[in-house]
Amino acid sequence: MAETESVIIRQSGRAGRITLNRPKALNALDLDMVRAIEAALTRWRDDDDVALVIIDAAGEKAFCAGGDIAALYHEGKAGRFAPGREFWAEEYRLNRMIARYPKPYVALMDGIVMGGGVGLSAHGDVRIVTERSMVAMPECGIGLIPDVGATRLLATAPGRLGEYLGLTGFRMKAADAILAGFADVHVPAERLPELTARLEETGDPGVVDGFATPPEPGKLEARREDIDRLFAGEDAVVILTALESEETEFAAETAKAIRRGSPLSVAVTLALVRSVRDNPTIETALTHEYRYTYRSQSHGDFVEGTRAVVIDKDRNPQWPVARQEDLPRELVEAVMAPLGDDELRFDEK
Question: Quick one: which of 175, 143, 146, 180 has its CA closest to 160?
Fold first, then answer.
């Protein structure tokens, strides 16, 4: 058993076990945790004693609320962009390793699952949510984009749910996460210890089926028709115009949610979801996402968005371009352009 302060790695029965261990920080992900998880997965890949991998987290509030963006804010504010770029590159390579892992990867998505937490769980083989789960990609609100491969999940969600979830940061409970393709089954939180013990004993992910129960009804199914119609517009301005022309509470709330986000992040998110939809591989998603996150501190809205939401908490970001209607298309294209020698690359191991 190897243990650090932030992530506990061990083998138990037939299972390799990963437990995120920063409950007071909502199990926020940092570079040391990324490296510890990557090393464990590399070690277990060729270990015949490990039949499957289980990832969970300490505490009942959060699986993982995302990356440690406060630290990235301070680096970006000081003009030190290399640490953020290194973190995102290594995190994305881990996301790809999870998506391509040759052994069953079981994620217990109990509690808050946002951003980097989605990357650690939703690319797995068996993704379990509970009545306490809340899954979201709210990055537009802090001047980032849905990343960690989430644009692949958004691109392959039914209809226009991907556009809706990416642009609004809507918080999905269990049924909605399953509908959108971020999770597979619902298991009551109180049964997770028993399920974990069975997985350790058998090494068989099929035992999950015996613990699955129907979740409480979600909200997205009833909204599907409106979402598909309203989010079919060619760009964010067209989508906002459609929403603000409708005299319904849902349309008004949705437009308001989009307006709260960084106009640049919203435009890039929409473009990425649609471009990845044409080739929905994990590599395509991560490569395209990295082009924006690489530039997010130096040319994007990440520093100001994180200041407003996480650091000062005034919830009043002063975006460089305040309205979607005023956003130059050239700026969107510039932050999405290939990075040349700095393009994200993946090991073939």
Answer: 180
